[in-house]
């Protein structure tokens, strides 16, 4: 088993409240029939949520992602995932916990834009 798979399994066991909340909405094809994978390894990274069919990764970010070092790391990660054919959509923990319907609609709009291209 590779390191990314082990890390993904650990992250599934220790998800944040926002990740768990969003996963309850997306799991079991809960978003208009689109299948999402949780904590899924892609090219050495572990995506919080991924819809392979649409080539969309949803990252649920906490407050630390506003720091310059984290923003640089996130940009590098997004570029690497883009080279693998994935668009990265970032949502905040606060948005998931306070505006779940809005986050759901944002994800759906991103998927529909990608699958109709």
From TrEMBL:
Signal peptide: none annotated. SUPFAM superfamilies: Restriction endonuclease-like (SSF52980). Residues 3-111 form the DUF559 domain. Transmembrane segments: none annotated. It comes from the Bacteria. It holds the Pfam family DUF559. This is DUF559 domain-containing protein.
């Amino acid at each position: 088993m590779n390191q990314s798979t082990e890390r993904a399994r650990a992250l599934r066991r220790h998800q944040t409240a926002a990740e768990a909340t969003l996963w309850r909405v997306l799991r079991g094809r809960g978003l208009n029939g689109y299948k999402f994978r949780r904590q899924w390894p892609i090219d050495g990274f572990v995506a919080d949520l991924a819809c392979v069919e649409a080539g969309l990764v949803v990252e649920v970010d906490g407050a630390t992602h506003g720091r310059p070092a984290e923003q640089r790391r996130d940009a590098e990660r997004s570029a690497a995932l883009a080279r693998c054919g994935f668009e990265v959509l970032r949502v905040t923990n606060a948005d998931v916990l306070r505006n779940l319907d809005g986050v759901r609609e944002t994800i759906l709009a991103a998927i529909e834009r990608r699958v109709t291209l």
